[in-house]
Specification:
By secondary structure, this protein is of the alpha/beta class. Helices cover 61% and strands 7% of the residues. It has a five-stranded parallel β-sheet with strand order 5-4-6-7-8, with helices on both faces. A three-stranded mixed β-sheet has the order 1-2-3, covered by helices on one side. Helix 10 crosses helix 12.
Length: 494
């Protein structure tokens, strides 16, 4: 998935997973987006193509409703002119910083020249050390530099949240956070490309400035130092200008000749042209060529990462979208235990199923399993494997691991790998008892404890089976957003 498609997908995912009220982007809108995308891409499209097309269609509809949200999304799009501007500024900064001496005298030991070469050599050393460290470290978590680069490039965009978007602030925060994480490797490679090319252009600017001024003025070569004599200066220049000497095939003057051009010495200092050629050749070898090569390498990495931002679609959000696309509507089988839900409860459960599995989810309620039938489920109550199974209980019943727990274990065994959800309907409890939050919490805790103790998975491994953990919801008056979040977390752990 390319950068634009990944951004739109991330934006829509943030909206659909965080927006609980669903006033701006309703259930019907979500269903429309899935159906429209399926019609456009056809039945044989890949998951990436379907998800990307769905996000594109959804954002076009959202753009007409909430221009502020669209501005936030558009603000996160990378603008190539930023990189071009940075590199252009770097070049002219190099041209403007060509003075490596005072007046028309070129100081061969000028700190700017030594600093330029030393800084770039230090950068290469850090790159090698970082590369070896990454190879020796099994963790794939981004390092501090990559996190800084990825987040820093997005930091200015956060002001876009104040542009009048009607989408809840939590959605915007989720969008920026998710995109920063998703695009961090891409932005790191992009920043590396810009920095490498900028460093190369800065060095080219220095060389260009030297030669441009050399046409208009006669530079004289000299050197001066408080602490370094002619012999030491000769050794320093031999090492510093070695790449230029290698490239040009020239040789340094001897110590006596170097001593003769010390600042203030007689005769007058020598013409600087040969030294400028050596300096320029050294800068090309040490700075320009390596930086250009590193920039090209970073550009290749950037290009590859820009096409592979989202490659996995195995989390519950994508799985719900793809299930409806590849397999059609989800078929939900509800199996109550010693409890016959009222029509209002079934209506609430249908609304909840539509929230979790899509508006076209179908639901079949089996005949309630009577007390004592949990060890040998009736054929009509067995999961058929066509979709998730819901074990439905009444909170008013007293939980027992030998009954409700055995019922869940029987459903789990009969359903194989199909998802199994445990729902406890609180509406019978609220109809029989006063609104006592302490007593309600105690009953919920009793259900959790009994079902956890009755789960074979927990007994054999000592770990909790998240799908076996009950979801408590008043189906007569359901809190759809809260219940949806709980169910999705259970499915994620299945």
């Amino acid at each position: 998935m390319n950068e634009r498609d990944a951004l739109l997908t991330t934006a829509l995912r943030a909206l659909e997973t965080v927006d609980a009220d669903r006033q701006t982007w309703t259930d019907s809108d979500r269903s429309w987006a899935s159906q429209a995308a399926a019609e456009v891409v056809g039945e044989a499209a890949s998951a990436a193509v379907f998800v990307a097309r769905r996000a594109d269609l959804a954002l076009e509809r959202l753009r007409a409703r909430d221009a502020g949200f669209a501005q936030v999304v558009d603000g996160l799009v990378w603008r190539p002119w930023i990189g071009a501007l940075v590199m252009t500024v770097a070049f002219f900064a190099g041209v403007a910083s060509d003075r490596i001496g005072s007046g028309r005298e070129v100081n061969l030991l000028a700190p700017p020249v030594i600093g330029l070469l030393t800084w770039n050599l230090a950068v290469y050393l850090l790159i090698v050390v970082g590369w070896r460290w990454r190879r020796s470290t099994p963790s794939r978590q981004p390092g501090p530099l990559r996190r800084l680069l990825g987040g820093g490039l997005l930091a200015p965009e956060r002001s876009l949240r104040q542009r009048g978007a009607h989408i809840p602030a939590a959605v915007l925060a989720r969008l920026i956070g998710d995109w920063s994480t998703t695009a961090a490797p891409l932005h790191a490679a992009r920043a590396e490309r810009i920095l490498h090319f900028s460093a190369a252009l800065f060095a080219v600017g220095i060389i260009a400035g030297l030669y441009l001024r050399g046409f208009a003025f006669e530079y004289r070569a000299a050197w001066e130092s408080t602490f370094v004599g002619a012999e030491a200066a000769h050794r320093i220049l031999t090492v510093m200008l070695a790449p230029g000497l290698w490239l040009t095939g020239g040789a340094l003057p001897d110590v006596d000749a170097l001593a003769a051009i010390r600042s203030g010495a007689a005769p007058a200092t020598a013409n600087a042209a040969p030294w400028l050629h050596l300096l320029a050749a050294t800068i090309v070898v040490v700075v320009v060529v390596p930086r250009v090569l590193l920039g090209l390498l970073s550009a290749l990495v950037e290009r590859r990462r820009s096409r592979q931002l989202i490659t996995r679609f195995d989390d519950p959000y994508y799985q719900r979208l793809l299930h409806g696309y590849h397999a059609g509507p989800v078929h939900l089988k509800v199996v109550p235990y010693s409890y016959r839900p009222l029509p209002a409860a079934m209506a609430g459960l249908q609304l909840l199923a539509n929230r979790v599995f899509g508006s076209h989810a179908t639901m079949i309620c089996a005949t309630p399993v009577r007390y004592g039938q949990e060890d040998s489920l009736p054929p009509a109550s067995r999961p058929d494997g066509s979709g998730p199974t819901v074990a439905l209980f009444s909170l008013a019943a007293t939980p027992e691991r030998e009954t409700q727990g055995a019922f869940i274990s029987a459903l789990r065994s009969a359903g194989g790998s199909a998802p199994l959800l445990v729902l406890v309907d609180e509406s019978p409890w609220h109809a029989r008892f006063d609104a006592d939050s302490k007593r309600l919490d105690e009953r919920r805790s009793a259900w959790r404890a009994e079902l956890a103790a009755a789960t074979p998975f927990a007994e054999s491994t000592g770990k909790a089976d998240r799908c076996m953990a009950p979801v408590f919801v008043d189906l007569a008056q359901p809190d759809l957003a809260s219940a949806q979040g709980e169910i999705e977390r259970r499915l994620e752990g299945s």
